Amino acid sequence: MKPWFNGKLDFAPPVLDLTTQGFPLVGGRLDYLANRSVAALVYRHRQHLIHLFVWPAAARPDTARHTLTRQGYQVIYWSDTAMHYWAISDLNADALKSFSSLIQEQAATGRVAPAARGLPGPEDMR
Predict the structure, then answer these.
(1) Hey, which bits of 1-124 come out as E strands?
(2) Taking Cα atoms as reference points, which of 124, 126, 122 lies closest to residue 9?
(3) Which residues is 89 bridged to in the sheet?
(4) Is 112 left (phi over 0), alpha (psi -120 to 50) or beta?
(5) If you classify domain 2-125 with CATH, what class do you get?
(6) Distance between CA atoms of 111 and 124, rounded to whole angstroms?
(7) What is the pLDDT of residues 64-98, one digit of tens each?
């Protein structure tokens, strides 16, 4: 998955392997938020998709996790010293909090998944 983003983004998004924790990576795409290219990684938990938007943090990080609910969707967002993260899903709040904790922990330790082979690409996410 990570090689797919090469040349499409001006940063390397952390692509984390959370399969053993129940959140397999199923795809990704290039997206635009507020006129900025972002990586959109798609994870699955049971029958629910989680969209994780990632882009470089230019300012001081806001490491506190913020949560909100909009129209049945849970949103959690935070930053670290390198990236901003927004996780959005119709999962229940506790499951999405577990997911975001895993992302925070693994991104902080640098445990990034090797390039995933055979994962669906953006054309398969329709």
Answers:
(1) 25-33, 36-45, 48-56, 66-70, 73-79, 83-89
(2) 122
(3) 50, 74
(4) beta
(5) alpha beta
(6) 26
(7) 889 999 999 999 999 988 899 999 999 999 999 99
